[in-house]
Amino acid sequence: MWPFGRSKPLGRRGEQLARRHLVRSGLKILARNYRCPCGEIDVIALDRRPAQGLQGPAIVFVEVKTRCDDAWTDPSSAIDSDKRRRLHKAAAYYLSRRDCTAYNVRFDVVSVVLRPGQPPQVEHIANAFG
Fold this sequence. Notes:
Blueprint: H1 8-24, E1 28-36, E2 39-47, E3 58-67, H2 81-96, E4 104-113, E5 121-125
């Protein structure tokens, strides 16, 4: 199977595993598959723990990348500058419609590799890009 194709069941499974991982890591899921005129964000979460060097909790915008194999490339490396720009715009849209002034903002990536016959491999990269 081509690892760069758009497989909705694969993506849904990856997002489900990513949300489970985030919750187990202490984050609270605020929204999933958030859509707005500026784009889409896979997961929006609240991290109540103060981040290193930051005071207070953070609103976390999470991009989930799922692959059935990472032989060609790591899933998280599929986030290019154009995708980052779209994520920033969608995050700004989300924040502009809520009172989030007391929160820091963070962009995370959760990479999920689902190889047949093997347990899922989930990697959470906190503060992946600003």
